[in-house]
Write a structure and sequence with these properties.
five-stranded mixed β-sheet, 14 strands, 348 residues, 36% helix
Length: 348
C-alpha cells in the first residue's frame, strides 16, 4: 500500500484513538421482490461481499493513507472466536495498533446478516448482544495512557456500534487531554437524551442527510439543501465551533465550518455498492485534517476516498491508497485543490 505524500513535519495530528463496532457480516441475495413474510422460506444465494463494522472501516483507511508516521489505535472488543481473531489480524495487517482490542471469552463477534432484494433494496439483522455491545466506559479508560501520550497531536473518534456510554467517556477523555474530538451517530441515537452533551464535546461531526434531518426536525419533503442548512445552524447553537460534514449520496455533500457552508457535487462513477461509503468519507476527512488541510480541502479528499470505495462490492475497498486515488481522480477528471493534489503525488 502507498500512503499519501504527507511530510512528517506537515502532520497536524500524529495519531488517532477511537472506539466503535468491530465485526463482520454476510450479504444474501433473495429471489423475488416481494417482502419477506413472517413464516416464509425463501431461496437465494450468498454474495461475494465482505462486510465490516464502522470503527474497522474508518480506522482502516486512516491507517493505510497516513502511513507509518501516524498511529491508529482502535479500542473495542471482539469475541474469542475465529471471526474475531481474523478481524484483529486484518487490522494489524493494515498497520493498526490493536493492543486495546480485546478478544472476550464467551462472547461472539459483532455480526450482521444483510438481505437484498433483486431491485437493490433490502435490510439487515444485527446481533445485539455481541462483544461490541459490552464495550463500556471502563474499557475506554483502560486506554487513557494513549490519550495522555497523544494530547493535542491526537484525534479521538467516537463511532457507532458500541454503547453511547463508551463513546461519551472517549469524548470526555479527549476533552481532558486536548485531542481533536470527532464523532458520528445514527438517526436513532440522535434522539437520545445524552446526545446533546456529547455533541457539545464534539469538534468534528460526520453524518448523512437522514441523520441531519433528525437534527433539523425536518419534514419528509424538505430538500437536502434545506435540511443541511437547518442542521448546521442547530449544531452551532450546541457547539459554536463544530465542523459538520454531511453526505447525501448522489446529491453530493456539504461541509460547515464556522459560518461557512460549502457544497461539493457527487463524482459520477459506476456504483457497485454504497455500503461503507459514509465511513470511507469520514476517514478521508480525518486524514485530510491530520495532514493539515483546512476543512473544505479535507472534504475534497473525503469525497474522493468515498467515491472510490463505492466501486467495490466490499465495505472496505482493500486497494485504496495514494496510487489508486490519484488514478481514479485522473480518470474521472475530479477537480481537486492543489493541497489535495500534492498529497496524491509520488513522493519520489
Amino acid at each position: 500500500m502507498e500512503p499519501l505524500n504527507i511530510r512528517t513535519d506537515a502532520l497536524r495530528y500524529r495519531g488517532l484513538i477511537g472506539t466503535g463496532g468491530i465485526g463482520s457480516g454476510a450479504f444474501f441475495a433473495l429471489e423475488g421482490d416481494h417482502t419477506l413474510g413472517r413464516e416464509e422460506s425463501r431461496a437465494g444465494r450468498f454474495l461475494d461481499r465482505k462486510d465490516y463494522c464502522k470503527l474497522h472501516i474508518i480506522a482502516h483507511y486512516v491507517s493505510v493513507l497516513t502511513g507509518g508516521d501516524f498511529r491508529t489505535v482502535p479500542v473495542g472488543m471482539v469475541g474469542d472466536d475465529a471471526p474475531g481473531r481474523r478481524l484483529i489480524e486484518e487490522m494489524r495487517d493494515a498497520g493498526m495498533d490493536t493492543q486495546h482490542v480485546r478478544a472476550a471469552a464467551g462472547e461472539q463477534t459483532l455480526y450482521s446478516f444483510c438481505f437484498i432484494y433483486p431491485n437493490g433494496e433490502g435490510g439487515n439483522m444485527t446481533v445485539d448482544d455481541s462483544a461490541s455491545s459490552h464495550v463500556d466506559a471502563a474499557a475506554v479508560r483502560d486506554a487513557e495512557s494513549e490519550f495522555v501520550s497523544m494530547g493535542a497531536a491526537g484525534i479521538a473518534l467516537a463511532a457507532p456500534e458500541v454503547p453511547l456510554e463508551a463513546r461519551a467517556e472517549l469524548l470526555k477523555l479527549a476533552t481532558e487531554h486536548g485531542l481533536l474530538r470527532t464523532a458520528s451517530f445514527t438517526s436513532g441515537e440522535l434522539t437520545q437524551p445524552a446526545i446533546k452533551s456529547m455533541l457539545a464535546d464534539t469538534d468534528v461531526l460526520a453524518i448523512n442527510v437522514d441523520e441531519a434531518a433528525v437534527i433539523a426536525d425536518a419534514e419528509p419533503d424538505d430538500s437536502p439543501e434545506a435540511i443541511v442548512d437547518v442542521a448546521a445552524s442547530s449544531l452551532r447553537r450546541i457547539q459554536p465551533d463544530i465542523i459538520v460534514s454531511i453526505t447525501a449520496g448522489s446529491h453530493g455533500n456539504w461541509i460547515a465550518a464556522g459560518d461557512s457552508l460549502a457544497y461539493l457535487p457527487a463524482v459520477d462513477t459506476q456504483v457497485v455498492s454504497t455500503a461503507g461509503a459514509g465511513d470511507a468519507h469520514f476517514s478521508g476527512l480525518l486524514v485530510g485534517l491530520a495532514a493539515g488541510l483546512v476543512p473544505i480541502e479535507a472534504q475534497h479528499l473525503a469525497r474522493l476516498v468515498a467515491t472510490l470505495s463505492v466501486t467495490s462490492p466490499h465495505t472496505i475497498k482493500a486497494d485504496v491508497d495514494r496510487v489508486t486515488l490519484a488514478a481514479f481522480a485522473r480518470e474521472h477528471e475530479v477537480e481537486l485543490p492543489d493541497s489535495v493534489a500534492r498529497l496524491l503525488e509520488n513522493p519520489s
